[in-house]
Amino acid sequence: MTWRSPLALVRDALRGQRARENELRSLESNLPYEGLEKGKQPNRYFPSNAIKTTKYSLLFFIPMNLYEQFHRLANLYFVGLVILNFIPEVNAFQPEIALIPICVILSLTAMKDAWEDFRRYQSDRKLNNMPCFIYSRKAKQFVERHWKDVRVGDFVKVVCNEIIPADLLLLYTSDPNGVCHIETANLDGETNLKQRTAVSGVCNTHPEFEPESFNGIVVCEKPNNNLNHFKGYVEKPDKQKVGAGIESLLLRGCTVRNTDHAVGFVVYAGRETKSMLNNSGPRYKRSKLERRLNIDVLFCVILLFTMCLIGALGHYLWLNAMPVVPPYLVPPTSGHLYRPSLTSFYMFFTMIILLQILIPISLYVSIELVKIGQIFFITNDIDLYDEETDSRIQCKALNITEDLGQIEYIFSDKTGTLTENKMVFRRCSIMGTEYPHKENAIRLAVLDEPEAEEEVIFNQHARPLPTRWSLDSEEANAEDTHGHGSRRRSKVTGNAQSDVAFSSPLETEVVPDGKLFQKISGSLSHSQKTDAYLDFFLALAICNTVVVSMATTKRRRVSVSPQAKHTNTPLETLSSLMRNAGSIFKFCKRNPKRHRTFTEDSEENFQPSGQTEEVGITALRPCSLHPPSLSDEPALTSDNLRYEAESPDEAALVYAAKAYGFNLLSRTPDSVSVRLPSGEVLDFEVLDTLTFDSNRKRMSVLVRHPITKEYILYTKGADFAIMELLGTPYAEHFSGNKKNIATVTQRHLDCYAKEGLRTLCIAKKVVSEAVYKHWSVDRKNAMAAIENRERLVMDTAVQLEKNLTLLGATGIEDRLQENVPDTIQALREAGIKVWVLTGDKPETAVNIGYACGLLEDEDLVINMGCKDKLTCTNILDCTLEEVRRYNADPRNVDTTLNMSLVIDGLTLEKALSPDLLDRFVALVKHCRAVLCCRVTPLQKSRVVKVIREKLKVMTLAVGDGANDVNMIQAADIGIGISGQEGMQAAMASDFAISRFKHLKKLLLVHGHWCYTRLANMIIYFFYKNVAYVNLLFWYQFFCGFSATAMIDYWLMIFFNLFFTSVPPIMFGVMDKDISAEMLLGVPELYKTGQGEGDYRFTTFWVSILDAFYQSLVCFFVPYFVYQDSDIDMFTFGTPMNTSALFIILMHLSIEIKSWTVVHWIIMLGSVALYFIVTLAYSAVCVTCNPPSNPYWILQSQMEDPMFYLICILSTVVALLPRYIFHVLQNSIALSPFIQAKHLDRKDPSIREEWMKELRSYRGGGQVKRSRLSTPPSPTLETPVDFIHESLAVADIMGDDFTLNAIAKN
Amino acid sequence: MVKQESESANRPDNTAFTQQRLPAWQPILSAGIVIPGFVLIGLAFIGIGVALFVTSKSIQELEFDYTGYSNESPCSSCAQSVVANCKCSLNFTLTTLLQGPVFFYYGLSNYFQNYRRYGASKDDNQLYGDLSYFTSPSSSCSPYDYDSSKKPIVPCGSIANSMFNDTFTLTWTVNGKTNNVSLDGKGIAWWTDYNVKYRNPNVTPLKNAFNGTVKPINWAKPAYELDASDPSNNGFVNQDFLVWMRRAALPNFRKLYRRIDASGDYKNGLPAGNYTVDITYNYPVRAFNGVKKIVFSNVSWMGGRNEFLGIAYLVIGSLCVVMSVVMLIVYAKFKFPDEE
C-alpha cells in the first residue's frame, strides 16, 4: 500500500461515513476496477462480506473484558470490599487474600466470555470461508472464492441448494422466465418457496449472462432490517430507471431452490445485510421472582448494616470500658491509641468485609446456572417435542423459566394457536346455491377417528418405557423405510405435516360434491366457457400466489443459521452452536436419503442422483433440478403436483379446484396454466397481481383469457371486503335470475361462520382494454416510485377493484389442534383464566370457543356488542350489579358464577377507554373466559397490558402469527407457536412451542417445577449465607467486636466456593416435589405458584430466623463445651465449621423432596470434599496464611471424640425444629401437595382411580349451573345476548330482567 | 439407522435423566415414619449423655484465683506493687487424692487473645526460624517490630511481647514435711508446634542467631535464655512460649502450665495434704479487670471437666423421646387414610 497523507485518510474516512449514511446509495460494478488498489474502488466505503460477531480482539481482551464486567453492580461491590481491605485501618484480612473472590469471579466470567467469543470467532471463520462464485474479469468467468471476498458491486453466482452469501439484486437466472425460488427458512422459518424475479430489462444477454455487459448503476436505500421491503432501481446508461423491490432481492442466508443457477449484484454485504441487521441479541426479562428477590437482597443489605452497626457500637463500648491499655490491645504504629469513636467507625467497615457473604452475590451466579439447567431439562423434554416438524421447544428468554409457574391469565390467539391453521375446504356457495360437500365431511370424520382416542398425557407417563412416543416413531419409521415419506407418515398421526407445508392428505384431497360435480360436467359439455361455475373454479385456481412444485422434489429443511448470533449468555451460544453442529451433521446424514428419494420416485425428472450427493455446504456443482414452471414436462401429471402457499387458505382452495378437475399446472410471474376438466390446458397471461394486504383484506389477479382475450380480474377476500365492492349482480346481468345473489350468499356466509368455518368471497370483473391501458400506466409509475410506494401501489389496487361481480363464497374449516379442549380444561383447573383474542368474527369465535371447551354449556355467556359508550356503561353497570347481588346471596356461598364474556373489537375499544376501564376490569375479573373478536394486533397487546397492570397478575400470551407479536411482547411471558404462518411470533417470543397442547406440560409441570425449585433454592441460599456468616457474628461478642474470624479465611472461601455451592444448584435444577403425572393429573396443584406463591415475605423471614437459630446453636454448643478451657482459636472454629457444613447440608436434605443418584453423589461428595480439602489444606499449610494457624488442626480434632459429639449435638439441635415442623405439617395440615405425594406412591392403577375420584369430587363441588343459566347453546341465539342495536331503554331493562330472572331461578 | 437419525435429529434423548425420570427416593416426613427415628436418636442421646455426665462428674478440678483484688487474697500486696518478681504464695488442702494424671493450668479472664490485631501481630516466618526475618520482621508485628533504636525485635509482635511471665512452684506439706512436687514441663505444647511450625534457626550456639536483635520490650530475658535449666527448651521452641503463642479462643481461658510428674508419691496423682503454690507475680491484669487463676485438674477421654455436653445430650435425648410420644399421638389422630 502506498503512503497517503493523514489528511487524505481523514477526508476519505469522512467521505465513507457520508456514503454509508446517505439515504440512497449508488453502486456500480466492481468489474472495471478489478485489480486496482483499494483507494480506487468505487464501493470501498461499504463493508465487505466478512462478518465479525466477536466482541473482543486478542490484544485487548483483558482490558475490554474487565471494562465490561465492571458494569455489573455485583462486581463493583466486590471491588469496593477489596479497596476497603487495602486500607490498613479497616482491613479484616490480608489485603491480598481479599482479592481472591473478586479474582475468581472475574476470571471465571472472563474465561466464559473468552470461550464464547472464541466459538463466535470459529463460526465466523467458518462462515467467512464458505465457498461462492464471484465473477472475475481476468478469468472471464465465475471463479470460486470465499464468502469473505464478496464485496458490494460484485457479481455472484449462486447455484441450486446453495446458501446465498450476501444480499443480491437478482439480475439473471437460468429460468427462462427470470424466476428464482428461494427458501427463507433460515431467516424467518417459513418453509414455503418464495419466488424472486430478475430485474427485467437489465440483462438481456441470454442464454448466458455477461456481467461485463452490465453498465448500469444500482441505486438502493440505506440498509435496514425489514425483510419484506427493499426499495431501489437500476439506472441504465440511457438514464432509464428500472424499479426493483424485495421481489428481486436474494437475501443472505436463504437457500436457492428449484433453480439451476442465478446471478446477482451484491447490494449489501456483511453486517449490512438484512439477515445480519435482523440478528439482535437475546431478550432480557426480569422474572417476578427475581424482582422479589432483589427486595430481599435489599433486606440483606439492611441486615448487614445492622449487624455491622452492632459490631461498631459493641467495639466502641468495649473500648470505652477499658480503663488502661491492656497488653493485648495493639497500639497503632504511631504509638498511641485511636479514639474509640474513630476506631469503631473503622470497625464498621471492617465488619462489612468480614460479613460480606451476607449479600449473596454468588446467588446471582447460582441462579444463572440453575436456569441453564432448568432450560436444559425443558428443551430436552420429549413430551414437548413435535414429531411432525422435528422441533423441540425453544427457550429464547433464559431467565424467566420460573414465571411459567405463576401464570394467572393466558391470552391466546385463535387461528393457528388453538386451531391447526391447516385449512380444509368444506363447503362452497356458487351463484347463490349452497353445496354442502357431505362426502367430504364424511371423509374428514373418518380421518378424525384416530384423534377421538386421545390419550391424556399423564397416562403415557404412567407407562414404563417405551413410551408412546418411541412406539410412534418406530411405527412411523418402519413405514417410512418402505413407503413414500410424507403420505404414510401423515396417516400415522392423522393430520401430520410433511416436509412441504400444507400437503397432508387432509388438505390435499377433497371429495367433490356430487351435485356440483354434475353441474360442472354439465356446463362443460355445453362448452359454455363463460359459465359462472367455470369462473368460480378458475378464480380458485388462478387467484392466488401458490407456487407449484413437484411432489417428488422433496426439499430438505435447512437449519444452518449463517449468522452467528450475538449472544450474551452461555447457554444461548452453547445451544446455537449445538444447533449448528447438529445441522451440519444433518446435511451429511440427509444426503443419502435425498439420493434415495430421487432414484425411487423421479428418475426421469432429475439428473442422475450422483450429483446430488454434494448437496450441502460443500455443494459447488449445481444439481440440475428443473424449475417446475416448465409446463411441457412429460411427467407432469396432476398427481405429483404440489402447491405451496404463503397462506394455507390459498392452498386449500387450489386443492379444492383440483378436485373438480381444475388443475393449476404452473405459475410464473407472467402466466398461469390451468388444465380444465376437459383436459384442455389454458394459459392465462398474468398482467398483474394485486397482492394481499391487511387494509384491503383481499387480493386480485388480473389475467388475460387465452381464448376470449378478455382482461379479467379475479378477486378473493374477506366477505365484508368484497361485498361492499359489488356492482351489478352477476345473476341479473347474465341469467336473468332476479334473486339477489349477494343476499343469498351473505346468508350462506353467516351460516358458515356459525359452523366455525372461515369464509372467503370470490368475485370477478371484466376490464375493458382501455381501462386496463390507462390503469397499467398508473400502476407502473406506482411500482417505480421510491417514496410512498406502498401507498401508491395500494391505491392503484383499490382503483381497479371496483364494481365486482360476486361469483360465490367458500367455507374453509380450520381444525382444532389435538388435545386443545383437554389443555384448556386443565389450565382452567389450574386456576388460569384463558382469554381468546382473535381477529375472526364473533360467530366463528364463539363456536370455536364451545368446541375447545373455553365456553361451556352451563356458562352464562355475556355477549357484549354495543355501538356507543352509553350502552357500554349500562351493560357494565348492570352486569356488575348482578354479580354483586349473586355473590351477596347466601345461597350462593359455595358456588361461583360461571360467567364468560364475548366482546368485539369496537366494544372493546370503548370498554378500554379510561372512564370505563375500571368497570370493565372489575367485570372480567369475574369471568371465567373472555373471547375478544375482531381485535387488531394493537388491541391485543392493549388488553394484555391492561389486565397485567390493573390486576397485577402474571400473564402469558400465546400466538403464532405476526399479528400476535405485539401481544407476545406485552405479556410477562410470550409464547410463540412455530406454525404455518411463519416464525415472526416464535422469533419474538420467550418460548417457542409447536403445539398448543404443549402448554399444559410446559406450565403445569415445568412451570411448577422451575418455580418451586428456584424459589426454594433462593430461600435456601439466603438461609445458607446468613447461617454461616452469623457464626462469625456471634464470635464478635467474645472477641471485643474486633472482626476476628475463628475460621481460616481460605476455608471460609472454600466453604462457599466448593463445599456448599453445588448442592443448592442441584436442588434448583433437579428437585421434584411432585411427579409430572400428578401435576398433570391434578392441575389444581399449579395454584400454589400463583400470586405470592411459595416465595413469600414470610418464607424469607422464617428462613432467616431459622438461620439465626441454627447459627446460634452451631456457635454456642462448642462455646459451652469449650468455655474456660485451653482451647485455641482455630481449634474452636473447626467443629463449628464442620457442624455448619453438616447443618447446612442436612437442612437441604430435609428440603429435598426426591433423592436420585445424582443427589446422593453430590451430597456425599460435598462432605467428602470438605474433609479431603480441609485435611489436605491443614496438612500443607504451615506458615502460608499468616494470622491463622490451620496446621494439623482438623487432624488433631478428628482424633478427639469430643469433636464428633459436638458436631452431632449441634446438627441435631439445629435441625430439630425444622424437622419437627415439617413432620407436623405433613401429618396435621395436609396440604394438597402431601396428599398428591401420598397418591403418587401408589401403583398406577390405584392412583388413577384416586385421581378420577378427586376429579369427580371437584365436579360435584360445583353446583351444576344449568339451572342458573340459559340452556346449552350450540348456536348463537341462546346465550344471554347483550348486543344492542340502539340505545333503547326497554332493551336494557329487558336484559336486566333476563338476568334477574336467571339469578332468581 | 441413519435414516431414523435424520428424520428426527432434534428429538431429545429419551433417557431417564433428561426426562427427569431417574428412580428416586421420595421420603415423606410424616409422624408415623419418624417415630422409630425419634426413639432411636432419643435413646442413643440419653446413653451418650449419661456416659458424658458420669465421666464429667469423675473429673476433679481445683481452681484458685490469685489476682489479689481483695485484701484477704495472698497476692494482694503483689497485685498493688509494681515490683518485678514479687513473691506470694497460695495454700490449699486436699482431703482426698486428686486422681492423676493431674494438669496444672494458669488461667486468665477478660483477656482477649482473640483480638484481631493482636492475633495478626506475629511473624510466622521468623518463628519458623528463617534468619532473613530476624533482621527485617514482617510489618504485621508493628509496632513491636523494631525498638526505639531501630533494632529488630525477635520474636517480634504483640503476642510474644505480652507473654505470660508468672511462674509457679508447688510444694506438698504432709506431716510437717515439705516436699517439692516435681512438675513436668515437657510436651505441654502441641506436638506440631514444637516440631513443625516453630523452629529455631540452625545456628549453634543459638545465641548467635539473635545477634543484632533485641528481646521483646516486656521480656526479662531474651528468647534464647528462656529456660536456663534445659538448653533445648529455649528460643522459639520453648514450651511455655509455644503454649502462649497458640491464642485462646475465648476471653476467659486457661493454658497448660505443667503436668504433675507421675512418679514416686505422685504416681496416682496429688495425694491428700496441704499444698503451697509459690507464685512469682509479674503479669499485670488488674488494669483491665483481668483475673489470674491457678487450676489443677485431672482429665479423661473427654478432656477437662464439662457438664454441659452431658446435660445437653440428656435433655435432647429426652426431648426426642417426648417427641416420639407426641408423634404417636399425632399419628393416631391424623393418620393419612392409606398409611398402614
UniProtKB/TrEMBL annotation, chain B:
Belongs to the CDC50/LEM3 family. InterPro entries: CDC50/LEM3_fam. Keywords: Membrane, Transmembrane, Transmembrane helix. The keyword Transmembrane applies. GO terms for cellular component: endoplasmic reticulum; Golgi apparatus; plasma membrane. It is found in: Membrane. One of its GO terms (biological process) is phospholipid translocation. It holds the Pfam family CDC50. It comes from the Eukaryota. Its main location: membrane. The keyword Transmembrane helix applies. The chain crosses the membrane at residues 28-54, 311-332. This is Cell cycle control protein.
